[in-house]
Specification:
The complex is a heterodimer of chains A (391) and B (382). Chain A is built from eleven helices and eight strands. Chain A has 391 residues and is of the alpha+beta class. Chain A has three domains: 36 residues; 186 residues, Orthogonal Bundle (MetI-like fold); 68 residues, no CATH class. In chain A, helix 3 crosses helix 7, helix 7 crosses helix 9 and helix 10 runs antiparallel to helix 11. The longest helix of chain A has 36 residues. Chain A is globular and about 75 Å long. Among the domains of chain B are: 37 residues, no CATH class; 222 residues, Orthogonal Bundle (MetI-like fold), CATH 1.10.3720.10. Chain B is 69% helix and 0% strand. Chain B is flat, with a radius of gyration of 29 Å. The chains are: A alpha+beta (391), B mainly alpha (382). The interface between A and B is large, with 60 and 61 residues.
Amino acid sequence: MPRFVRTSSSHAARRAGSIALQIALVAIIGGVAFAAIHNAAQNLANAHITSGFGFWNDTAGFDISQTLINYSASTSTFGRAFWVGLCNTLLVAAIGIVLATVLGFAIGIARLSSNWLVAHLAGGYVEMIRNVPLLLQLLFWYNSVLTTLPLVRGSVALPGGGLLNIRGLFLPRPQFAAGFGYVLAALVVGIAASIVLRVSARRRQDRTGEPMHVFWLTFGPIVLVPSVVFVLSGAPLSFSFPQMGRFNVMGGVEILPEFAALLLALSLYTAAFIAEAVRAGVLAVPHGQTEAAQALGLRSNTTLRLVVVPQAMRVIVPPLTSQYLNLIKNSSLAVAVGYPDLVQVFAGSVLNLTGQAVEVVAITMAVYLFISLVTSLLMNLYGYAIAVEER
Amino acid sequence: MTAMTERTYLRTVPADPLPPPEQRAGRIGWLRENLFSSPGNIALTLICILFIAWALPPLLRFFVFDAVWSGSDRQACLSSPQLPEPGACWAFVRVWFSYFVYGFYPIAQHWRVDVFFLALACGIGWLAWLSAPRRGIGAVYFFIVLPVLSYVFLRGAPTLGLAEVPTALWGGILVTIVVATVGIVVSLPLGILLALARRSDIPVVRLFAVTFIEFVRGVPLITVLFMASVMLPLFVPERLSPDKLVRALIGVALFASAYMAEVVRGGLAAVPRGQYEAAQALGLPHWRMMALIVLPQALRVTLPNIVNTFIGLFKDTTLVFIVGIFDFLRTIEAARADPHWATPVTSATGYAFAALFYFICCYGMSRYARRVETRLARAHRR
């Protein structure tokens, strides 16, 4: 009898073994955790650091270069600094996701082009970007490309009143007067009306089989009506243009070079991965589907819109979700160029000023976990919404 | 309904004959089919050619024709009457090359690093060559013998006559390779364990594995590295506090394990249920079944994914830079700040060199993964 064959196979013995294993595992984890906490308490006591979240309401006393919400070094708290950092992270992640998606879909489709040159240029882009670390790309954009911009004195004036120099990109800041609320309200009503129109057109097509093209009809409520309201309410919008000062630029919206570098690096990098997901998704639709659609007499763009894309999206959404999550997590590389994101402000400045390593790192991790969970939840909901019902 | 009887969509006269097919063979046929098949395609081709004509000559000029290949300081790479717009300053890379590879590792001891690289290359070759003899011994060599010996060898042992070299002096490509190697050596076994734990029937084991994997995958590597470098020293008694490099290694290894666990789990799921049932029917205990039947098949199908995860890990090693480890990228950063080499092109040259290194490594690995994939696909074809 080979010696690796089980000799006793009583279920009771296996059950007992399993329970013993679980107890042992819990004991080991508990022991390690207890020892770690004990050591931490002792080490913190030696370093005269009181643990707890009391620092949250202390005055921060350091400046942040980009603040989307009100913040001042002298009066704001560490807690406020946390929210400032979080907003900056969300800003760069949100814009990055949009840019990466657009670029990624374009490149992914270009890779499938029947034009040899287009397909290989797109393929070269994907291979080049995917095989070089993101941090290296980020440093390249920040230290090697954006430092070649001119000094403030030699600012490049952009069409439309913007200024570009080594301090960043300065765009006109829109200023809304009192009547602008009406324009916004008209826009919201217009969008709602368009949705209603579209849904009813779809219903009608389902019922009678007659297609009804509503694209140009929705143009009226979305564009025309708000424009008319805009003129009637006396054009309640003006711009404050950036002015060149002696050492810096005054007025306007400032886009930091750190932000620009991070956004460029994140979206170009993630776009390459999204392109691969898109390519795989489109290739996953069997060719018979296209042929069947053509046999039914569908035109090529209708085939794409009604047959290929819905099936490809089912395959694309899961990897797309993980790329979005990667982009959000990778935005923490901001710390390498000094863009004030959550990690740079909170796990950097606040940690160094307070010394509350455990609390600060734990909060930072919890925030990323939370963002990841919410993003996967949203994408899963979208995945359910577009799932093609099978028999 | 008269339309029913008329059948207007039926042709009543024969259609005109189609023109003879265009030339399909040969170079002209290829060009016509792939570049000039329709007006839209012709336009795309022209746009692409214009783009290449716009982008390629300046790049070639910068990296090859106007590049400075030798020199001893920044003067060589500054604009001069002979070379008004100098290209890449490869002289800078040549002068700093030894620093990029070894960091501050003592020059007299560089041979030890070279031996380590060689031993590592042997191990990788042994495992990567799928029909190599005794790959089992290769695995033992790579995952147990090599790490232990390399640590002793690189760190030094005065009793063996090897001078001690503290890890603070290690740097450059050496550290990048060490971090990546430790990452794969720890994360593969740990990842397999975690994947098995996640599929286990025992609730506590499964809960522990799921919590660990999902937690690590939900947070950025930087925060894990921060945790390892800032919090880890708090959790152990002061005299046991590990050195900076070891702390970063722990962070990277734990991070990689979670990702590896998910890859291995995918492989485990791909093993047909019948294999488990057949093993159980033969009376194999759980661990024997896993080790002899399931894991060999699971690892085989998932090898391309393991390599791809490793490519990600290799790129992620650059992040140890942020917690102050002198990896390859950090040595580039340090060297480009050197005032003796301060020129407008130094940074770009340094980054280009680093990009070339990472590209060659990662692209090579991805080609390997693709080859394994086609080989596996061939094995499954009937």
